[in-house]
């Protein structure tokens, strides 16, 4: 079974540029979440999408946006990049059963974004 | 705002010993927690979950939850050098997001 796939794995961008990160969840998982992890910190929640609808958004500026497609893959966009956006961006997919039980995230390998 | 706190470490234990990793959480009504392991340069991987007060065992791992003290711990028995990683505690009680601690770095010395 394919896990959560993210692309690209590494990216170097200049301040002010825009970036799009991509994620494909595990087959059958309808929920995709995005997290930002700065070195030495735990992952910080950015967005969650379920069935193509945004379920939640973390404390990130409007420069961050995301969407989920009919095949449940997702994109995270960041505009007007700042040096502080340099981080590991993690995508996670998860499965919930009909009773709402959460089986936990499976994370992709991440996209390491460096803003120079 | 929910918070999860962990000692960043490093926690150093000799090979074969029990490693004890702890976290505290701020939200008194939180009910579910996950432990993740993250090797350097890699993404987090799920170890186990715990929802009820008491202990839950899975192989060499035991998760403990004490809701009265708002305290979650992970014990690793017979620690191996391959267990050296950062361990993340997550409050997963929210409807759509996990709150992660900063992680504790564990070093198992051969």
* Relative strand content of chain B: over 45%
Q: In oligomeric terms, what are we looking at?
A: heterodimer
Estimated structural class of chain A: mainly beta
Stretches of chain A where pLDDT is under 50 for at least 5 consecutive residues are none
Question: What's the β-strand tally of chain B?
Answer: 11
Distance between the first and last residues' Cα of chain B? 40 Å
Summarize the structure.
Chain A is mainly β and 116 residues long.
Description:
- The complex is a heterodimer of chains A (116) and B (110).
- The mean pLDDT of chain A is 93.
- Chain A is mostly beta strands and 116 residues long.
- Chain A has no helices and eleven strands.
- By secondary structure, chain B is mainly β.
- Chain B has strands spanning 4-5, 11-14, 19-25, 33-38, 45-50, 54-58, 61-66, 71-76, 85-91, 99-100, 104-109.
- In chain B, the strands form two sheets. In chain B, strands 2, 4, 5, 9, 10 and 11 form a six-stranded mixed β-sheet that branches.
- The mean pLDDT of chain B is 95.
- The A-B interface holds A 33, 40-45, 48, 50, 55-56, 58, 88, 90, 102, 104-110 and B 4, 6, 8, 32, 34, 42-46, 49, 88, 90, 92, 94-103.
Q: What key attributes describe this structure?
A:
heterodimer, A: 116 residues, mainly beta, seven-stranded mixed β-sheet, B: 110 residues, five-stranded antiparallel β-sheet, 11 strands
List the helices and strands and how they pair.
The complex is a heterodimer of chains A (116) and B (110).
Chain A: E1 5-7, E2 10-13, E3 19-24, E4 31-37, E5 44-50, E6 53-57, E7 64-68, E8 74-78, E9 87-94, E10 106-107, E11 111-115
Parallel strand pairs in A: 2-11
Antiparallel strand pairs in A: 1-3, 3-8, 4-5, 4-9, 5-6, 7-8, 9-10, 9-11
Chain B: E1 4-5, E2 11-14, E3 19-25, E4 33-38, E5 45-50, E6 54-58, E7 61-66, E8 71-76, E9 85-91, E10 99-100, E11 104-109
Parallel strand pairs in B: 2-11
Antiparallel strand pairs in B: 1-3, 3-8, 4-5, 4-9, 6-7, 7-8, 9-10, 9-11
């Amino acid at each position: 079974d394919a896990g959560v796939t993210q692309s690209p794995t590494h990216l170097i961008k200049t301040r002010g540029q825009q970036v799009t990160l991509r994620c494909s969840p595990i087959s059958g998982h309808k929920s995709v979440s995005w997290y930002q992890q700065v070195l030495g910190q735990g992952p910080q929640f950015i967005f969650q999408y379920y069935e193509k609808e945004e379920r939640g958004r973390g404390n990130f500026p409007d420069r961050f946006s995301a969407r989920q497609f009919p095949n449940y893959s997702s994109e995270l966009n960041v505009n007007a990049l700042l040096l502080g956006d340099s981080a590991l961006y993690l995508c996670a997919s998860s499965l919930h059963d009909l009773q709402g039980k959460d089986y936990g995230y499976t994370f992709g390998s991440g996209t390491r974004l460096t803003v120079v | 705002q929910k918070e999860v706190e962990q000692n960043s470490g490093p926690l150093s234990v000799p090979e074969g010993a029990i490693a004890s990793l702890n976290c505290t959480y701020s939200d008194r009504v939180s009910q579910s927690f996950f432990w993740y392991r993250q090797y350097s340069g890699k993404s987090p991987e799920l170890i186990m979950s715990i929802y009820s007060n008491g202990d839950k065992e899975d192989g060499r791992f035991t998760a403990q939850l004490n809701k009265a003290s708002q305290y979650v711990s992970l014990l690793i028995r017979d620690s191996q050098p391959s267990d050296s990683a950062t361990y993340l505690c997550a409050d997963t009680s929210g409807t759509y997001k996990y709150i992660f601690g900063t992680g504790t770095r564990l070093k198992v010395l051969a």
